[in-house]
């Protein structure tokens, strides 16, 4: 009688060794020889693949006992009504390990570790700002890099995202806190979905200097860092308890309630669990760097205190409920989505008037908001800018400032597009003329139809204006609506947003226009209001 166990990759080697040792005594259950087979499987993948309809001829391996690295994956699986009964047995915690920041030791020391507490949020801001390691007296390491992983696939990545995003620790992420998730998303440059992938790559480093150039902090469990360091790699990692606090990986033993887990397999599962709770098993887990179920390190001889391991994090955090976690991961996923954006900005004379909130002119507030908004987009997103008033280019009311293309790319002359966007917003948005709203919107919409992109991109046309149409020589509102409807292509959807900034914007007019193509108009009194519209659009939520 074989018991099939799916264990998270970090603990699978320990479980496999213990299973082999347990079987040395040829255990029998109800007169039948009992065997335990252990398969390493990412917990998120098992959570997604569980089904009550499993058949013996299925391509998916059988699972009798599931040993994920966190209870959150069990809760995630239980969110599916058909799977919920399968995981209704009460699981048992066999080990724990804090989620830490795994960082090459030289890099940690360069930042003042162990005397200084290092923060994910601060590192992320540093990365987004383009800071190099020269700031920490190591220019040879070049650009600062940071890795997060995929919170949909990795518990350390998920725990880190939750800790950084939920700054007030109330187990929910508000709109105000979304900026923390955004900075983390934009800072992530070390491409590895899981800690296992990152650590496997670090193990292959043969040249320490080259390894440091391509490395950075990455979420992992303390046990994973211990296993890595105990193999004496070229670049040692330290386990840092970050300023944001940490969550604990709690390694579960979940016997599935399924048709194929018959009474005999249930007995085998119970006997093997008793063995996993024995002194020998606790020592085996401890030798691999795991703490016991009570967080004690009495068995954890594999933890090197010189590399930051073994202490109990002072800022331990509880996991929020599954609804809050799903919401936060949903935000993260949306922030990873690439966009194809044309921003069309009003540069009419009225933009020189005082801003509604008294912070400079209308143009100055919009300029600052636009500059901050560019940081919202994935580096592979396409962004371009136009300005509009009246007769800017012959009889045209609009003029291209920066051609649409990847934010992280360059213009044909080699200028980084980010630099060009910043320069154009500062230097080309000069208030002059009247407001040529209708002609500009029609031209911009046609432009986006011609430059529409697939690959699940968000095709977005955003117009910012402080007034209403003032071009007597252009098309009328009725003509605009008719022509917008005529050129709209349901196979190439374009999301149209018009932000009416200030008291002179005619929101009724803007709403009527945007409804013609299924878009929306939003009022804004401050630069923060403008940024909120951008962010809400990216995450698919009403502003």
Automatic annotation (TrEMBL):
Naturally occurring in which organism (per UniProt):
Cryptosporangium japonicum
Q: Which InterPro entries match?
A: EF_Hand_1_Ca_BS, VWF_A, vWFA_dom_sf
Boundaries of every VWFA domain copy: 340-538
SMART domains noted in UniProt: VWA
Entry protein name? Substrate-binding and VWA domain-containing protein
């Amino acid at each position: 009688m074989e018991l099939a166990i799916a264990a998270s990759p970090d603990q699978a080697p320990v479980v496999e060794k213990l299973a082999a040792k347990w079987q040395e005594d040829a255990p029998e259950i109800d007169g039948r020889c009992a065997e335990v087979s252990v398969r390493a499987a990412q917990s998120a993948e098992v959570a997604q693949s569980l089904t009550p309809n499993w058949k013996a001829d299925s391509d998916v391996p059988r699972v009798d006992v599931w040993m994920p690295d966190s209870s959150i994956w069990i809760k995630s699986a239980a969110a599916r009504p058909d799977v919920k009964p399968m995981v209704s047995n009460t699981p048992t915690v066999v080990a724990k390990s804090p989620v830490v920041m795994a960082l090459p030791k030289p890099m940690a020391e360069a930042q003042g570790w162990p005397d200084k507490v290092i923060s994910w949020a601060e590192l992320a801001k540093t990365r987004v700002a383009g800071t190099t390691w020269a700031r920490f007296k190591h220019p040879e390491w070049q650009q600062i890099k940071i890795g997060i992983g995929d919170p949909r696939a990795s518990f350390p990545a998920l725990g880190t995202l939750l800790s950084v995003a939920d700054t007030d620790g109330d187990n929910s992420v508000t709109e105000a806190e979304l900026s923390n998730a955004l900075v983390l998303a934009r800072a992530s440059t070390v491409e590895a979905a899981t800690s296992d992938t990152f650590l496997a790559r670090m193990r292959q480093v043969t040249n320490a200097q080259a390894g440091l150039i391509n490395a950075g902090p990455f979420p992992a469990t303390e046990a994973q860092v211990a296993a890595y360091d105990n193999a004496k790699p070229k670049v040692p990692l330290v386990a840092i308890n970050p300023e944001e606090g940490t969550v604990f990986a709690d390694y579960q033993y979940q016997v599935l309630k399924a048709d194929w887990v018959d009474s005999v397999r249930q007995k085998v599962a119970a006997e093997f669990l008793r063995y996993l709770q024995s002194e020998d098993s606790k020592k085996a887990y401890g030798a691999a760097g795991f703490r016991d179920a009570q967080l004690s390190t009495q068995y954890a001889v594999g933890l090197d205190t010189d590399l930051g391991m073994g202490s109990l994090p002072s800022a331990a955090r509880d996991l929020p409920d599954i609804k809050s976690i799903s919401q936060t991961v949903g935000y993260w996923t949306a922030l990873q989505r690439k966009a194809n954006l044309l921003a069309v900005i009003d540069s009419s004379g009225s933009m020189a008037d005082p801003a509604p909130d008294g912070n400079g002119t209308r143009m100055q507030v919009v300029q600052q908001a636009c500059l901050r908004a560019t940081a919202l987009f994935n580096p592979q997103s396409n962004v371009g800018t136009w300005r509009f008033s009246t007769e800017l280019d012959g009889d045209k009311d609009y003029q291209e400032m920066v051609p649409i293309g990847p934010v992280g790319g360059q213009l044909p002359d080699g200028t980084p597009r980010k630099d060009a966007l910043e320069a154009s917003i500062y230097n080309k948005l000069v208030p002059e003329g009247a407001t040529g709203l209708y002609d500009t919107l029609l031209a911009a919409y046609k432009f986006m139809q011609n430059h529409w992109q697939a690959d699940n991109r968000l095709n977005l046309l955003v117009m910012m204006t402080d007034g209403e149409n003032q071009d007597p020589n252009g098309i009328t509102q009725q003509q605009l609506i008719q022509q917008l409807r005529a050129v709209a292509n349901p196979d190439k959807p374009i999301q149209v947003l018009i932000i009416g900034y200030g008291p002179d914007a005619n929101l009724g007019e803007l709403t009527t226009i945007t409804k013609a193509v299924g878009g929306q108009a939003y009022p804004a009194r401050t630069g923060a209001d403008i940024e909120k519209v951008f962010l809400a659009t990216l995450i698919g939520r009403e502003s």
